[in-house]
Please model this.
Amino acid sequence: MAADGSEAAALGETMHAMVRALYPLCRSITGDGVRETLRMLSAVHPIVQREVPSGTQAFDWEAPKEWVIRDAWIAGPDGRRIVDFRAHNLHVMNYSVPVRGQFSLEALRPHLFSLPDRPTLIPYRTSYWSPNWGFCLPHSLLETLPEQTYEVVIDSELKDGAVTLGEIVLPGESADEIIVSTHTCHPSLANDNLSGLVVSAHLAAAFARGPRRHTFRFLYGPGTIGSILWLALNEAHTRHVRHGLVLTGMGDDGPLVYKRSRLGDKLVDRVAARVVGEAGGRVIDYYPYGYDERQFCSPGFDLAVGRLSRTPHGEYPEYHTSGDTPEFVKPAALAASFEAARTILETLDRDRVVVSTNPKGEPRLGKRGLYRQVAGQASARPDEMALLWVLAYADGVHSLHDIAARAGWPFARIEAAASVLERHGLVRAP
Amino acid sequence: MAADGSEAAALGETMHAMVRALYPLCRSITGDGVRETLRMLSAVHPIVQREVPSGTQAFDWEAPKEWVIRDAWIAGPDGRRIVDFRAHNLHVMNYSVPVRGQFSLEALRPHLFSLPDRPTLIPYRTSYWSPNWGFCLPHSLLETLPEQTYEVVIDSELKDGAVTLGEIVLPGESADEIIVSTHTCHPSLANDNLSGLVVSAHLAAAFARGPRRHTFRFLYGPGTIGSILWLALNEAHTRHVRHGLVLTGMGDDGPLVYKRSRLGDKLVDRVAARVVGEAGGRVIDYYPYGYDERQFCSPGFDLAVGRLSRTPHGEYPEYHTSGDTPEFVKPAALAASFEAARTILETLDRDRVVVSTNPKGEPRLGKRGLYRQVAGQASARPDEMALLWVLAYADGVHSLHDIAARAGWPFARIEAAASVLERHGLVRAP
Amino acid sequence: MAADGSEAAALGETMHAMVRALYPLCRSITGDGVRETLRMLSAVHPIVQREVPSGTQAFDWEAPKEWVIRDAWIAGPDGRRIVDFRAHNLHVMNYSVPVRGQFSLEALRPHLFSLPDRPTLIPYRTSYWSPNWGFCLPHSLLETLPEQTYEVVIDSELKDGAVTLGEIVLPGESADEIIVSTHTCHPSLANDNLSGLVVSAHLAAAFARGPRRHTFRFLYGPGTIGSILWLALNEAHTRHVRHGLVLTGMGDDGPLVYKRSRLGDKLVDRVAARVVGEAGGRVIDYYPYGYDERQFCSPGFDLAVGRLSRTPHGEYPEYHTSGDTPEFVKPAALAASFEAARTILETLDRDRVVVSTNPKGEPRLGKRGLYRQVAGQASARPDEMALLWVLAYADGVHSLHDIAARAGWPFARIEAAASVLERHGLVRAP
Model:
């Protein structure tokens, strides 16, 4: 399934084109921007949309009203728009309530958000759970605003509607599930998280093509409330979840970063540590901030879900600003992120325990054509070594991933040897 | 409870004044020097004295006879005292039997102890368990003694009396105990162990002021036989001991050193390692030599007792010599030792396991006024992060100390967050 | 039991003389070369030979036919022998079937083996399990062979016979066994494995002299099939095997290398790691290639057997070539290997758990004459410290090896202290 160099390059470009196409939509935790985003992603693999009505209870939370944003601006006495939603959807604070009136600069100021340390960038701000309104603008612009009367309009609406969740289910041989979760709620921000959405969609397409031991479930929803709603609506089902990844920030040019699950001792943690380490990335411990791993890992669920990203949230200056553009996202980074996620998921899917059918002494590989006949050389040939590694630890305790980790070899090489041994009846399922 | 800089400085001076006041007394494993020491320490917090009669059996040991020392000297033919107990109580070997007679230098020599490598210092020697007598003197003085007849007098007595133990008990919400043990038996030696005594007394006074989850027990007794007697007389009670510290050598200007309990895997070991590490100190493994940790950690008790000191015994040239004066002890070191011990004990007392009342997904902190309403910033505010750390690991397994260690934060900060969550009903005792 | 310097030197010379004496014999996995080798080794300690008939089934294997080799050569048209078994027994591929005929160089070439990267050395090649024949020769000679007709003779025979196994059993106080296994099948190769054979024989002689807690069993047989036959013929008995070592490559001048048992967590692994580490050697993890540890550690047996060598197989250019001569083997290396193996085996034999008879507080060593009477010095005397180490951990859990590892001291010193305490009734068997 691994892509060679030119396939990877092509895939990176394909994903980047989709980032560009999705970028202009104004997404939020609800609304048509999300619906259209999922519809466009369905070109890669069909995503089923589910509408969860406003007011639906979910543990300590409830589904919010749906936010409709049509237009928003701040205009001067001359009627010229100084801050304009149509120029950039980050200009309006996400979930702003409607407002229409005349404001002095002083009265307006508590509703204006800027970044003094990055004066050219528009920040991203939200107020989902407390009725409020606001505008986000470059600090350099804010500083030039004269004392005068401003016309302020936010043509928005908070109505009974729904939270839109998206899902792709790829049934496998087993009901055991691997979940891949990506948040859909950010407006025109490319790395966070259009990059995650396009990588997830292409992973779904890739795993749809092959045989799967596990059922794969790709989840798309708004951060926090989306995963909480999914968990509440599928609480009994979560017992099938064996492994999972949250994908975000897949496109900047920093190294890969894997954030361990809450207890850090799960198979996904060991598998991802090897894959990310070999790719030159790094592994960090769980901390209770970030993305939807917070919900999947909450102590009442404690699912084996880690998070894969490149540079983590808040560690790059473009984060949550108008600097997070499609140009900030690199095709090669998207392709490398895809490949790392694919390798992790494939390993999770194919890892298994096998037991030797000849556990006492080694079986005679030579009489089965699996071993050279002239001996005495200084070392075994590599493929013979993979067979020997599997046989030595086909003890019903070590999984193929454990064996690969002991050997210091890629999982795929050990898995291939195990498949050969299975065909020859030398190992079998426990 | 933590002291600020000027309070700490004042406390250091107060403790140092008490070291100076206690220094002249001639202590031993028994006798009035110990009784007077405990009486003077009671000015800080009252210490209950208990007399354990000579001959009392305690496991493989028994309480010794009580030693009375009134005077001792070596005089020359002219009657001038060359070595004089009144000049320094280290001059007489502790527990010397009475002697009165004329000795040639040759006959006297087996009873003279000096330190050739530190010729100006008087060594400290004892012979508690084998009847013997001796004088300790600077090697430089020993080398000048002429061949002549010496008048030797030790006006001492070994009588049926008692071993004096001191105790402060501060009852807590629970019968579970934290013990703090300090040896009382060294004569005019300031760091070893007047420093431990004054720090212990001030810890008792500090913990007497606040609420306590555990019962605190401060023990004062002679090294080895004191702790063995206490263990023998309180054998059944030791099942209440959850944690403990032996305090010694708290005043030299070396870094803090924590010596782990026998198996090294107890909460006190983890807590002390963090506190001492943050203070720039170091942690060493258990070894079967040193102070009363040897008895508390003996395999038949195996209590979770570690040892806190600054430079360990034998690792500074003034150790067990007349060089261990009040000037060798620094007020700032006493204050820093107090603060480290206080932090360790407070953490041991307040550490607890809590469980989330909303374990599935995160609870909505915002609707309880515990979280900002405008979101999107790069990182959570610090106090919000502490709440999230506690909630993420309020799983009935991790204690608050475990959570603080995961976060890499001071225990007090996590404990404060847990208290807030308890008040809001978001976590509770398991 | 430890030898001093001159004894070690003498032992090294004695072992080296035996390597030289055994070198000319043509060994294989069967045959008279092996029988004569075991007979000569019996001069050190009698080895019992057992003949396992050809065709005997053993798990996935069976005992092969016996190979008889009388002569072999390649001669030119002038009748002169160009390649001659009588000159070096490596010249004939081990287990070559009989051949007699005229061959062109082209027809002969598939049966000629050489090492282009080490052109002066004759390689060692075998074909035990697939009927074949061949000659091994220096690449420099191969390159000079003209296109002509060659007379080729291998005067060999494959007949129903036996595999010869050797065994020394030294009964101990217990039926628990320590096994030492060495392969016998290599022809004129000195380090691999005459060095192992002579060290093993001298270890047997050394342990035959002293008291033994365990039964020692020294095994001698051909690689792979020998250990598989022994395991098959003694399958039920293997439950007595507590520890074991495979010995090989004991004579080159590289540092010692200990290869851990399959799971790496056995006592032999911990003991050998300390001994080899202190000798400046290194420890490597198990991997499923090498010598008979592959069979002893196979998952159906999973015996606690590690491997001791100097430079591992394949990591020196003389390996499996005519360069592995008696001169390549150094007497001092043989002696040091012997001493390391002896120390490991002695530790395995003498390690035990003891429990204190006075576990509450320390026992009074002084009244038993085990401790100085004048106290106050900066540190305990070393032998007192060994007593204290044993008493502190005589808890029924720690073995003497565990205690030695905690103390960072040689096992023998802790064991000596434990023996003193046993004599005084201060510790006893659990």
Residues 190-209 of chain B form the longest helix (20 residues). The longest strand of chain B covers residues 149-159. Chain B has a mean pLDDT of 96.
